[in-house]
Amino acid sequence: MTRPTLITVIGKSAKDPRDPVPEKALRMAEEVGKLIAERGGVLVSGGLSGVMEAASRGAKTADGLVVGILPGFDKRDANDFVDIAITTGMGWMRNTLTVRAADAVIMISGGIGTLNELTVAYELKPTVVLEGTGGWSSRIRELAYGGKHLDEAKIAELHFAQTPREAVEMAFSLAALGESGRDSAREYS
User: Fold this and answer.
1) Element (H, E) at 11
2) How far is the C-alpha of 172 from the C-alpha of 185, rounded, in Å?
3) Is pTM, for the whole model, over 0.85?
């Protein structure tokens, strides 16, 4: 039996009306979710609003499976497009579970919670940043060492995409290489 590829989408939530998610990020997240489902992947996210909800909605339009790993204890907190809601009661610490569940991670927009998820994913999971979506996704390259490393030792690297299709194709390719093949994936740098 072949196990489906799990792609975690991390990104900005819509919890603060004073700090809305950019419309472009929501459109791109929905397209990413749809493309993940069309490829037979399982979409994993934090299960809440904003980018997480948009990606989940996109996956459902293509009859995909959506898993939401929630920070609280109530499954009703999940957005309407989550099929499997996993409660943790862990608050932000659930970010570790969200990215560790993945075969690859796609980052879209992002605030402080997304930045936390990115740092958790960095050494352990191949991570694709969808640039041009606002927040940390539009800034991380300029802050990274050599434009792709979060550490001076260059233990791992971030991969960058400009379109939803490129991000999803890259995530699936990197996931297929497995964690041990990350260093050989330089073509996506």
Assistant:
1) strand 6-11
2) 12
3) yes
- Taking the domains of the chain in order of start, what are their residue ranges? 6-177
142, with CB counted inside 10 A (0-12, 13-18, 19+), is: exposed
HSE on the CB side for 150, CA within 13 Å? 19
Cβ contacts of 9 within 8 Å, gap of 6 or more: 29, 32, 33, 36, 43, 44, 45, 51, 52, 55, 105, 106, 108
DSSP state of 75: G
Q: Which two tokens stand for residue 152?
A: 């001076």
Residue whose entry in the numeric block shows the structure tokens 């539009």: 138
Does an H or E element contain 52, and which? helix 51-61
Domain 6-177 belongs to what topology? Rossmann fold (3.40.50)
* pLDDT per position as a tens digit, 113-141: 999 999 999 989 999 999 999 999 999 99
